[in-house]
Amino acid sequence: MKDLAIKVTKRVNISLSDGLYSDLEVWADQEKSSPTALAGSLVENSVRAAKLNGVLKTKNPIADYKSFVGLIRGNLPTLVESGKFESNRLKSLMDGSQATEVEILRAALLIGVSEEYIQSLPVKE
Q: Is this model's pTM higher than 0.70 or not?
């Protein structure tokens, strides 16, 4: 079984004007989230968009997955080698079965993307 590298979350401190923070609080409340989680998600989405649009060039570009099925197919070797998914279950996911919360979390950790990113994908194209 392949050893998995532990992905460490990094912290970034930012300063916002009172008005902008108030807006962030309102938005976070509407999303049933915390301002911190929403800000992190917004930054992550902005960086991902910059990579996809070629504005940000890094050593590990993000593939532009059109669906959850595409994400599973594109990362099948990693998911199989991890031993965290049974082959029958991977086949079901590639056929369009709904992933469980645990499966989404496992896939996110193994592939190196956020749960939010995976949840934003349609199941099929």
A: no
Q: Compute the distance between CA of residue 61 and CA of residue 114 in angstroms, rounded to an integer.
A: 15
The answer for residues whose C-beta is within 8 angstroms of residue 94's C-beta and 6 or more apart is 69, 72, 73, 76
69: number of Cβ within 10 Å: 19
Which one-letter DSSP state was computed for residue 63? Answer: P
The per-residue pLDDT for 87 is 92
Nearest one of 54, 44, 53, 52 to 12, comparing CA atoms: 44
Check the CA dihedral 5-67-115-18 and report its sign.
Answer: positive
Pairwise CA distance, residues 55 & 47, whole Å:
9
